[in-house]
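From the pipeline queue, job 12 of 40. The input is one protein chain; the requested action is below.

Action: predict structure.
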Amino acid sequence: MWFLFHFSRQKLIALITVLTLHFTDCFDTETCGMSCQQPSTAVVVYDESKLSPLVKTSRTFNFAKTELVIKQDWGNLGVAAVVWDAAIVLCEFIEKYKEEFKNKEVIELGAGSGIVGIVAALIGANVVITDREQVYPYLKRVLKDNLKDKENVKYSVKILDWTRDLHKIPQKYDIILGADVIYVEEVFDALLATLQHLSHDETKIYLSCKIRYDRDTRFLDMVQKHFTLQEVLHDKDKDIKIFLCKKIKIKILS
């Protein structure tokens, strides 16, 4: 492996990252972009333009007439600190139907890069953007970088672990947002409890996701025991679906 010493540290990290993403069990084709069915060995020539968007140090987007530069940190925080397609599609949805979000009390769950909450704030919602404690410093930096010069933008950042922190957020919200929050089966019960805790009878919950595994469908089945579930968008290019959920109203017989 002597040839590695001819790489700069940055290029070496990128090379190792690409190899790791490809030759381990990939999260999905968004990460890899290549067939991973057969094990193989290869030397990847560094070319930043050909890197997966997920391992780039930053990505630039334009939403709500604003250029957003989202720094990514796959190396330290993994899936929590990159912009997934589900988030991009949800941002597009929010921008298209901005009147539905304007002046509403909104909370984003599992915000990661925070781009969904940023877009909701830019179009006029009052947004609480949440994630776990480990992600909180990164999330705050991204929000500060993109919203520091924006006047009349209403947002706050809070730590929210679905398994233990619900008592810290007693408020009910008009809209709950979640992009790619359906992936760890061990916290499905906690996620469902969080949706119930934060919603009132008229709350709209928008879940943007790619259905990757059977467990994803199982979570949607769990949701339907307490909420109505309607597919409101399917981006076929990215294979992302957005579901609208509302609490099932219990009729009391007199």
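Job complete. The two ends are 78 Å apart (CA to CA).
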